[in-house]
């Protein structure tokens, strides 16, 4: 098992158990103590986990957004479904703005079928995926690196002010009734607000695990966006509330 595979497995085990010991990981991964400790040290440096005596614990908290590697691995199939549905909003030759979310990174991985897109993003991994798989013009915002995955702060906002795109694809930490879209921290929320202001059409990609969840910072309300794309319908109360404000798209929804 290579390092990347071990570290993904460690994250999966942490999601199940919250805390793991080096001894436990050695048994599950068939790896030496030195190898496991090296992996934990690298992951702690990346902000993926917190080292504790004899092992590690998963970083958590409603005021903190999870690192991209955690978010990308979690509910991967749900994110792919939402991203696939969102492709219907795209055409060749469009200008596109993408946030740094794991769901939008899944969308970026499916864009090679289009021609001559120009893309603006604050997502480091998102830009990397596009650079590897397409010949698009890609503009990556400069600024402060957050969670090893996104650019935020005044410099990143200044970059965004130079662009106005045909469409924005973005995600969120939570959607709650009646129509509130929220983020875990104010830096991310500030970037989303600016993106919303600088795009003609706004599409929210949100896997179903984020429904009926509310976080500290408001990014927008449903009435400010053109569509919410998700992998499965939310409960009836939230769905009815959202449909009063915008289009809600999910598999076999009939929309």
UniProtKB/TrEMBL annotation:
Residue stretches making up the HTH deoR-type domain: 3-58
SUPFAM superfamilies: NagB/RpiA/CoA transferase-like, Winged helix' DNA-binding domain
Keyword Glycoprotein: no
Coiled coil: none
Xref: InterPro entries: Carb_Metab_HTH_regulators, DeoR-like_C, DeoR_HTH, NagB/RpiA_transferase-like, Tscrpt_reg_HTH_DeoR_CS, WH-like_DNA-bd_sf, WH_DNA-bd_sf
Keywords: DNA-binding, Repressor, Transcription, Transcription regulation
Any Pfam family the entry gives: HTH_DeoR
Sample GO molecular function, one term: DNA-binding transcription factor activity
PANTHER family for the chain: GLYCEROL-3-PHOSPHATE REGULON REPRESSOR, HTH-TYPE TRANSCRIPTIONAL REGULATOR SRLR-RELATED
Function: Repressor of the lactose catabolism operon. Galactose-6-phosphate is the inducer.
Name of the molecule in the record: Lactose phosphotransferase system repressor
Species of origin: [Clostridium] leptum DSM 753
